[in-house]
Design brief:
- By secondary structure, the chain is α/β, with parallel strands linked by helices.
- The chain is globular and about 65 Å long.
- Helices cover 45% and strands 14% of the residues.
- The strands form three sheets. The chain has an eight-stranded mixed beta sheet with strand order 1-4-5-6-7-10-11-12.
- The structure holds iron/sulfur cluster.
- Iron/sulfur cluster (SF4) binds next to loops.
- The site of iron/sulfur cluster has 11 residues, from loops.
């Protein structure tokens, strides 16, 4: 699962990076995921984890410099958990990267909370001093029961410990949360979505990360959760329930974080802003959506998905939906589809939702 030594790419590049790193230099320090068991994650399944030799990584950095010159301002270390490297090795990589790309101002990476918890604050500080600016950590949920169900391999306490260590070191921390992770499950005889929203807010409040990034659960083929969905064990929440869950989390948040919704899977990408000052504004957006009728919610979602897939008419954001001309145009299209084949608009919505990555 990697590319190397072709004309366009004379160094190895892994499959993913956060949306915020779309313009970054990508340097692959390990292959795939050393955990690889999360039920919702199809990315590295069937691909074994491998550490790369430091020599090869340094050579890749040199090849990247030769290919692109010193054009990058940001760099991202791949794949799923770069902190699995020994600290002296990672220091060598970051130092070489900064020497060869002096214009790079920000170096970031994904990291697992469990791995971070094994690093001392002093080691993290050394990494920060060498140039590691931010870690992207998948919290997914703060609800322990759901963490076990999803085989995340960590507890909420571990996430708190890892988050606080990162903050103490001065490295910027981005925690990822998955809206809808509990679907319609009832675990421990409780409504999982409520526990997920409240417990996640509790963990976020304890850590107060620099960034909270939300993405919405997609159930993709190749993930164990896809099998559970096929067998009827797991059911996705509907759009309105997803927003209800996000609203509950927002209401319980008491942080100073930047709340970011930059993923196409999210129903309301407008829910983004700085806490605490934007909290009420973000809550108001969720409430405004929930006050819409089912047909209006459907019209809005179709318009945002159309935007993503380059179809017309479409909505750039929630504000666009209140342009009555645009809304009427979308409604005419939906009505036409229904007149031709009842149920077809809902099927298309499902299909487009499933195509999101
Ligand atoms: S979610 Fe992250 S830690 Fe879990 S299997 Fe996927 S890449 Fe690995």
């Amino acid at each position: 699962m990697y590319q190397r030594n072709n004309r366009n790419n004379p160094y190895e590049v892994g499959p993913i990076r956060p949306p915020s790193e779309s313009n970054s230099l990508l340097i692959r320090v390990s292959r795939n995921c050393p955990w690889n068991k999360c039920e919702f994650c199809p990315i590295y399944k069937r691909h074994p984890f491998e550490k790369r030799s430091i020599e090869d990584i340094l050579k890749d950095i040199d090849a990247a410099k030769e290919t692109h010159g010193d054009v990058f301002r940001t760099a991202f270390l791949q794949d799923a958990n770069s902190l699995v490297l020994k600290t002296p090795d990672l220091l060598k990589v970051i130092t070489h990267l900064k020497n060869r790309f002096p214009a790079v101002e920000r170096v970031t990476s994904y990291a697992r909370a469990r791995t971070v918890a094994r690093k001392t604050v002093d080691e993290l500080k050394q990494l920060k001093e060498a140039g590691l600016s931010r870690l992207h950590v998948g919290l997914e949920t703060g609800y322990d029961t759901l963490l076990v169900y999803m085989k995340k391999g960590m507890t909420a306490d571990m996430a708190v410990d890892a988050g606080l260590r990162i903050k103490q070191s001065g490295i910027s921390l981005c925690f990822y949360v998955i809206i809808g992770l509990g679907g319609q499950l009832r675990l421990e005889n409780k409504e999982t979505w409520k526990e997920h929203a409240c417990e996640t807010a509790r963990v976020l409040n304890q850590v107060d990360p620099d960034y909270i990034r939300v993405r919405t659960l997609t159930i993709r083929e190749g993930s164990p959760l896809f099998e559970k969905k096929q067998e009827g064990e797991f059911k996705r929440s509907c759009d309105a329930d997803l927003v209800k869950e996000e609203l509950l989390m927002l209401e319980h948040l008491d942080v100073t974080s930047q709340f970011v919704s930059d993923h196409s899977t999210n129903i309301l990408m407008d829910i983004r802003g700085k806490f605490p000052e934007d909290k009420e504004k973000l809550i108001a957006i969720a409430k405004r959506y929930l006050a819409l009728s089912e047909d209006e919610q459907m019209n809005f979602r179709m318009g945002t998905l159309f935007r993503f897939f380059g179809y017309s008419p479409n909505y750039r954001n929630f504000k666009d939906f209140f342009d009555l001309e645009k809304r009427a145009e979308m409604q005419t299209l939906l009505d036409k589809m229904e007149a031709e084949e009842p149920g077809s608009s809902r099927n298309l919505l499902l299909h487009l939702n499933n195509m999101l990555v």
